[in-house]
Specification:
There is one protein chain. By secondary structure, the protein is α/β, with parallel strands linked by helices. 52% of the residues lie in helices and 15% in strands. Helix 13 links the parallel strand 9 and strand 10 (294-298). The protein is globular and about 60 Å long.
Length: 319
Amino acid sequence: MDIVLLLPGQGSQKVGMGRDLFEASAAARTAFETVDTAIGTAISALAFEGPDDELRRTHNAQPALLAHSAAAWAMLADVLTPHVRAAAGHSLGEFSAYHVAGALELPDAARIVRRRGQLMYETGTSRPGAMSAIVGTLTTPIETICAQASAEAGLVVPANYNSPEQVVISGETAGVERAMELAKAAGAKRCLPLPVSGAFHSPLMAPAAGGLDAALEAAALRDPRVPVFANVDGSAITRAAAARPLLVQQLTAPVHWTLVMRNLVAAFPTALYIELGTGSVLSGLARRIAPDVRTMTAGTLTDIEKLLELLHTETAHAH
């Protein structure tokens, strides 16, 4: 049985995330405590108890999401590892993907994502911007809309190609607002401003790149055990040397999630796609991009029990 791991990104966090895993499993508890120790903050307490507005802050949400994904992985690694063929994560989740693929030890991953979150937050404060989700099929390509809005109002670019019907745009507030007007005129069903602290995955994030590169340089990044499919270009990364520049570039480049999923499904059409950690955003996107794909979530104790039951049944049948 082939398995592909999907690791969620920012926006999936919610108060209470991972608490049932922490209470039920020593391995999960160790994962949360490892992240707390590495960053010198009780991020687990914030994940379990909130408050929500504190958890949502970029520099808190990122390590909290990593910790939850790592805790789920710690509970499942022994059973899943022989079956895992590839991994991919959305934005922040790409760092979690390198952790589960054995390229980053958890303390290193935690320090990197905490620093990444701080850098993104600081850059968003010094260079304010906005993001918005554009939902629906457009009669004008989103790239054309962004180019026109940039010329008329302020810099705006496509930031996340999440599915054929959903693109997130990012940039200067006036540019994003103008692009939303143009998108509505081009047939967008909805344009939803996102509650974020900066224009992520846009050129406005450029000041954060040097700091992230330094944080990656300080970590021991190894070659992953299985390919990690990169946000920047959808390629399968098997070497640490190729991973690092792409992880830095990801700050200012769009997340090509639709391409990542299409490349994964082309390579592993019959795999079970498991979303490790908080929520089910990526499972939903996977089904929109590739309707025949098999997905499961592994974020709660109930999810993990169902998954282990399925694996037991399928491996029993295989023998």
